[in-house]
Design goal:
The protein is α+β, with helices and mostly antiparallel strands and 97 residues long. 32% of the residues lie in helices and 40% in strands. It has four helices and four strands; from the N terminus they run H-E-H-E-E-H-E-H. The model has no long low-confidence stretch (mean pLDDT 88).
Length: 97
């Protein structure tokens, strides 16, 4: 079991964990293709599917906070109606090696 420390709480374990989340982005249907391209160009974002007004993405990064910041940036994009995180997972970096 990992030791709970003040630094660990403040940094959300930055550096030793990898976070990944899935999200659904609701876009204006006429802007979906353009937004899919913009999202695919963002660091840590991968587009997996899009249909109608929905775009399914994953977001990866070193902290949960970074995932939230990326989702906030997506929400603020022109043509995006909503962006909602569906699932988040974190694993130790050693497990990824």
């Amino acid at each position: 079991m990992r030791e709970l420390t003040r630094r660990g709480l403040l940094t959300a374990g930055a550096g030793d964990r990898h976070h990944i989340s899935s999200a659904v982005v609701l876009a204006l249907p006429e802007r979906r293709a353009e937004l899919s391209e913009r999202l695919a160009g963002m660091h840590g974002v991968e587009v997996h599917a899009s249909e109608g007004s929905r775009i399914v993405v994953t977001i990866e990064g070193p902290t949960s906070g970074m995932l939230g910041e990326t989702l906030t940036m997506i929400s603020a994009m022109d043509g995006v109606l909503a962006a909602n995180m569906v699932f988040e997972h974190a694993e130790d970096q050693e497990a990824r090696s």
